[in-house]
Amino acid sequence: MAAYGLYTHIRANRIRSGFLLAGLFLLVYVLTYAGALMAEAFSGDASLEWLLRAAGRDLIAALPFATIGTAVWVLIAYRFHQAMIDAVTSGRDVTRNEEPRLYNLLENLCISRGIAMPRVKLVDSDALNAFATGLNPRQYAISVTRGLTEHLDDAELEAVLGHELTHIRNGDVRMMIIAVVIAGAISFFAELFFRMFFQSGIGWRTSRRRDDERRGSGGAIFAIVIAVVLIALAWLLSIMIRFALSRRREFLADAGSVELTKNPDAMITALRKIEGRGELAGATSAVMELCVDNPREGFVDLFATHPPIERRIAALVHFAGGHDPGPIVLPPPASEAEETSVPDEAPPPSPAETNEGGKPFLPEHSPLGGPARDAPGPWGPRPPD
Question: Among 154, 156, 253, 367, which residue is least crowded by beta carbons within 10 Å?
């Protein structure tokens, strides 16, 4: 079905995202099968057909463990993801008294649309970025860096807050956190099942007893190749699914910010200021995927989770009628400006302020109260004694 209008695009994107998320769960079972196939191949040579059947039986036996393990992984993320993100970014909750400007801007946006107010968090970093977190209304929070509050004016900061609030409204935050968790589970299960099959040999011994007379030979190397391909394919597909989930949502969040603030120029200038300045020191790739911008350069741009700033601005100019001021140079932080500033020197006196001897005139009255000796009288300089 074709999508027309912002909300239709959002609804269509949710449907696609649901299928993509289901695909991530499916990749967990693909990885489990690959691990079982590799374990069968290493357990002893056999025909490829026998090894594939044995790995299938192992997969059926392991399905409950893989499903329960994935569910536990998601539950751990549900309960502790915010604490882990705060530990990585050094984010902290702030109140209206601590950050009245930031708090009031977000509250006004929420009131204008009847949205529940998320928690406000401040990250002590000079980087310019922001991100939303949470899996339900009680957990939702918007984190903003100190650098962003210092370099953006009220309209620009409001546009960024509208961007993150749109992520929450559209269910993007919940979807992205689950996607990151499941993608991490794929790596976790790879190691788990390799250890289980290599160390304990669960599954292949039963298969060997059943089909010992029809094992054959020559298929182990092919089974290993197939298993390696499946593992690589599962890893690549998990990355591609995360890209597909994130990139499309950034365009919709930019559009949602304009819909909330009615100010496309503010969103464009905010993106220009954030451009190339959003890298959070010490933040993991999973955290950077949640941010307004996830800067990547050169070859790593192939694995970027966010569309380039230029494309996002071009979309706002084309569809929202905004104006692009081009790259923006920001002044250095106040601390750096103080270190590099040179003490002001008193300018030399101008010729009109000096007498014939080059000496500067004193004030009309000296500090002691009498007329200054070199001060000019009403008909010109005083004659010498």
Answer: 367
Task: Render the burial of 60-97: b for 16+ CB within 10 Å, e for the rest.
Answer: eebeeebeebbeebbeebbeebbeebbeebebeebeee
pLDDT at 78: 75
For 234, counting Cβ atoms within 10 Å of its Cβ (0-12 exposed, 13-18 middle, 19+ buried), the class is buried
Supply φ then ψ for residue 191, to 5 degrees: -70, -40
Quickly tell me which residue has 């499916």 as its tokens. Answer: 26
Give long-range contacts, CB 8 A cutoff, 24+ apart: 309-316. 309/271, 309/272, 309/274, 309/275, 312/250, 312/251, 312/254, 312/271, 313/268, 313/271, 313/272, 315/251, 315/254, 315/255, 316/254, 316/255, 316/258, 316/264, 316/267, 316/268
SS3 assignment, position 141: strand
Answer whether 278's CB lies under 8 Å from 201's CB.
Answer: no
Residue tagged active-site, from 40, 99, 158, 164: 164
Whether the predicted pLDDT of 245 surpasses 80: no
Angle between the 6-43 and 220-261 helix axes, to the nearest 10 degrees?
160
Q: Which residue in the block uniquely carries the two structure tokens 């250095």?
A: 332
**Residue 338 and residue 345: Cα distance in Å, rounded?**
16
> Cβ(128)–Cβ(145) under 8 Å?
yes
Q: 176-204: per-residue pLDDT in tens?
A: 777 777 777 776 665 665 565 555 444 44
Dist CA 195 CA 328 (whole Å): 52
CA dihedral sign of residues 69, 70, 75, 81:
positive
Sign of CA dihedral 271, 273, 276, 282: negative
Residue 121: predicted pLDDT:
95
Q: Rounded to 10 degrees, what is the CA torsion of 366, 372, 377, 382?
A: 180
Tell me, rounded to whole angstroms, the distance of Cα 151 from its chain centroid: 19
Contact present, 333 and 150 (Cβ < 8 Å): yes
For the whole model, what pTM was predicted? Answer: 0.70
45 Ramachandran zone, left/alpha/beta (phi>0; psi -120 to 50): beta
Q: How far apart are CA 257 and CA 175, in angstroms?
A: 19
Write the pLDDT tens digit of every residue in 4-58: 445 565 566 566 666 766 777 788 888 888 888 888 887 877 888 888 999 899 9
- Three-state DSSP at 324 gives coil
Locate 201 and state its tokens: 């040999």
